[in-house]
Amino acid sequence: MSVAQAEAREVQLEAPSGLWSEAWRRLRQNRAAIVGFVLVGIFLTAALFAPLIAPEDPRGAGVDDLLQRRGPACCPGPSAEHLFGLDEQGRDVFSRVVYGARFSLLIGIVATAVGLSIGAVFGAIAGYFGGAVDSVIMRLTDIMLSIPGLLLAIGIVAALGQGIWQIMVAVGVTQIPIFARLLRGSILATREADYVLAARSVGVPGRALLGAHIIPNSVSPVIVQGTLALATAIIDVAALGFLGLGPQDPATPEWGTMLTNTTRYLQTAPHLALIPGMAIVISVLGFNLIGDGLREALDPRFRGRA
Amino acid sequence: MLRFIVRRLMLLVPILLGLSLLVFLWIRALPAGPAQSLLGERATPETIRQIEEQYGLNEPIHVQYWSYLKTVGRGDLGTTIRTRRPVTDELKERFPATIELTFAALLFATLLGVPLGYVAAKRHGTWVDHSSLVVSLIGISIPIFFLAILLKYVFAVKLGLLPTVGRISVLIDLEHPTNFYLIDALIAGDPEAFWDVSKHLILPAIALGSIPLAITARITRAAVLDVQNEDYIRTARAKGLPPRTVDIRHIFRNALLPIVTIIGLQTGLLLSGAVLTETVFAFPGMGTWLVEAIRQRDYAILQGGILFVSVVFVLVNLLVDISYALINPRIRVS
Q1: A171 touches chain B (CB under 8 A)
Q2: CA of B220 to nearest chain A CA: how many angstroms apart?
Q3: Which of A76, A224, B133, B199 could form a disulfide with A295 if both were Cys (CB 3.0 to 4.6 A apart)?
C-alpha cells in the first residue's frame, strides 16, 4: 500500500459518517432487525422464485383428477410427496403458499406505494404551505380516518368490483391519510428548525430549501412508516381475501383466500389453516421487525450510541 | 373546558358532513347505480323508474344530497333488500352484539396489557422486559382472523372447552329487551344464561383483544419508562416517600395519560377487527351483518351500516379527546 493510499483511507475513516451510513451500521447491529431481514428474505425468495421452488402448479393444473388424488377424507396432511399436504381441492398446499407470496408482495408493495406517494404529496403540500390549504387537506384526512380502515377498503372493493387492481387501490387508499399526516407533521417540525432558518437567512431559494433541507430531514418517519405499512397492507389484503373479497378467481393462490373455508376442516385438516396463516405471520413479523429496527436506527436521539 | 368541548363539537360538523357526502357519493359510484342497488335482483326498467321517482333520483345531485341528509337526520336509513325490514331495526339487534364483544375485548386488553407493560418497564432490560416485547410484537403481527382460527382450533376443536359459534346456545331461552345478552340475562335473573353468554364471548374477545393488548402493553411500558426518569420522581424519592407510594401516586398516575389515549384510539381497530372476528365465530354482530350484506349486494345495509359505524367511531374519538383534556389540564390551554 502506497503512502497516498494509506492517507486516503485515513481520511475516509475520519470523515463524519452521514445519517444514512450510520443508520445502516446500527441497523446491522440490531439483532431483531436481522431476524426481520431473514424472514423478509424467505418471503422475497418465495415470491421471486416461485416457479422454481413450487413443485406443482398452484391452481392444480396438470393433474388429471384432483379430487381423486385428495382421497375420500379431507385432506391428506404433510407427507414426503407433498410437503404441506393437499387442500380440499387436491392441490399442493406448498405450491400455493409459495405462489401466494407473489400476490402478497405485489399487492402489498403497490398498495403501499399508492398510499405513500399520494399521501406524501398531500402531506408535503399541507405542511409547506400551511394556512387554508393545510386546513382543507387535514379535514379531508379526518374524514377518511373516521371510517375504520377495513370498512373503507370493503366499501371501495364493493364500488370497484373484485380483482387484484381493486384490492391494491382499496388498501392503498386507506393508507393515504396516515402518510399525509405523518409527512405534514414532520415537515412542520423541520420547517422551524434552526438549520432551515440558517439556510433561509443566507438566501437559499424556497424550492432548494424544500428539496435540499426540509424534505430529506422529514423522510425518516415516512420510511419507517412505509415498512410498517407493508406489514399492514399484507394483513389487509389477506383480510379482504378471507372475507371473500379477494381476487375474483377463487383458485388464485392468495393467503387470505386460502384461509376462508378452512374452519370447516379444522377437525381433520388443521394444516389448511396453519400453513397459509404462518406464511402471513412470518412476512408481517419480518416487516414489523425491520420497521422497528429502522425507527431506532434513524432516531437521532439514539445516534452515536451502540 | 366548556370552550374546548364547544370547539371540538364545531370541528365535528364538517367531519360528519364530509362523511355523509362520502357515503352518498359512494352509493352513486356503485356499478349498479342507486336504484338498481336498492332493488337488487327485482330491478326492471319500470321499477327502476318508479324508485327513481320515489327517491327523487332524477333530481339534480345537490337536491338529492340535501334530501338524503334530511332522511338520515330523521334516523331513517332505508329498508334492507333481503328482509324488507328497516335497516335501523336490524341495526338495533346487531349493534349491541358488537358493543358487547368490543367491550369484552377492551377489558381483556386493558386488564392484561397495563400490568404487563408496567412490569416490563419496572424490570427494564431483563428477560421479563424482552419477552413482553417479543410477545407484543408477535401479537401485532398475527392477523386477527388467523388468531381467531387458532383459538377456535385449540380451545374448541381440540379441547372442546368453549363454544365456537354464535352468542348463546340454542337451548337457552332468553328474552331480549336490550339485545345486550349479558344485561338481558341479568334482567331475567338467569345465571345459567349469563354464564352461557359469557362463554360465547371468551374466544372472540381474546382474538379481538390481542392487538389492543399488544399495543397497550407497549405504550404502558414506554410511558412508565418515560415518567420514571422525570425530575419530580427523583424529588419524590429523594424526600423519602415509600417506593410503593411513588410507584402508584406519581409514576402510574402520570403514565396513565398516554395509556388512556391509546385505549380510546383502539376503537377503530376494534371495529375493523370485529368484522373479521365475528366472521370466524359466526357471531351475529355488525361485522357479520356487513359481510353478509356485501355477499348479497344489500347496499342499503352497507350504506347505513358504514355511516353508522363511522359516526360512532367519530363520537368515541371525541369522547376520548374530551376525557383526555379532563385528565390533562395542559391540553385545555393550548
Answers
A1: no
A2: 17
A3: A224
Which of B18, B143, B309 is the closest to A148 by Cβ? B309
pLDDT at A71: 67
> Between helices B87-122 and B267-281, what is the axis angle to 10°?
110
For A299, the grid coordinates are 432516531
d(CA B280, CA B255): 36
Strand partners, A86: A92
Chain A residue with the nearest C-alpha to that of B267 = A148
In 3D space, the residue among B103, B37, B68, B92 whose CA is nearest the CA of residue B270 turns out to be B103
Place of cell 410498517: A228
Q: Do A194 and A180 contact (CB within 8 A), yes or no? A: no
Please tell me the least confidently modeled range out of A13-27, A120-134, B193-207, B264-278.
Answer: A13-27
* Better-predicted residue by pLDDT, A68 or A297: A297
Contact residues of B toward A, CB < 8 A: 14-15, 18-19, 22, 26, 29-31, 137-138, 140-146, 149-150, 152-153, 157, 268-269, 271-273, 275-276, 279-280, 290-291, 294-295, 299, 302, 306, 309-310, 313-314, 317
- Residues from chain A that touch B272, judged by Cβ atoms under 8 A, are 148-151
- Does residue A252 contact residue A246 with C-beta atoms inside 8 Å? yes
Give tens-digit pLDDT for A261-287.
777 777 777 788 888 889 999 999 999
Residue of A219, A246, A236, A222 whose CA lies nearest to A284: A236
- Does B22 contact A292 at a Cβ distance shorter than 8 Å? no
Q: Provide CB contacts within 8 A for B180, sequence distance 6+.
A: B96, B99, B100
- CA-based R_g, chain A, Å: 24
Q: What residues of B are in contact with residue A154 (Cβ under 8 Å)?
A: 275, 290, 294, 306
Nearest to B116 by CA among B139, B103, B91, B133: B133
Q: Which grid coordinates belong to B169?
A: 346456545
Least confident of A37-51, A71-85, B77-91, B161-175: A71-85
pLDDT at position A14 is 46
> Given this model, what pLDDT does residue B331 score?
57
Residue A211 Cα, gap to closest chain B Cα (Å): 32
Number of Cβ within a 10 Å radius of residue A302: 14
> What DSSP character marks residue A17?
P
Measured CA distances, A161 to A164, A247, B34, B64, B214 (Å): 10, 10, 15, 25, 34
Q: What's the pTM value of the predicted model, to 2 decimals?
A: 0.83
Distances B196 to B49, B154, B229 between C-alpha atoms, Å: 50, 19, 47
Given A145, A158, A270, which is nearest B294 (Cβ)? A158
Phi, psi of B153 (to 5 degrees): -65, -50
Res. A54 pLDDT band, cuts 50 70 90: confident
Give which of A28, A154, A289 is closest to B137, Cα–Cα.
Answer: A289
Q: Which residue of A has its CA nearest to B153?
A: A266
Position B32 scores a pLDDT of: 67
Task: Say which residue, A102 or B334, is predicted with more confidence.
Answer: A102
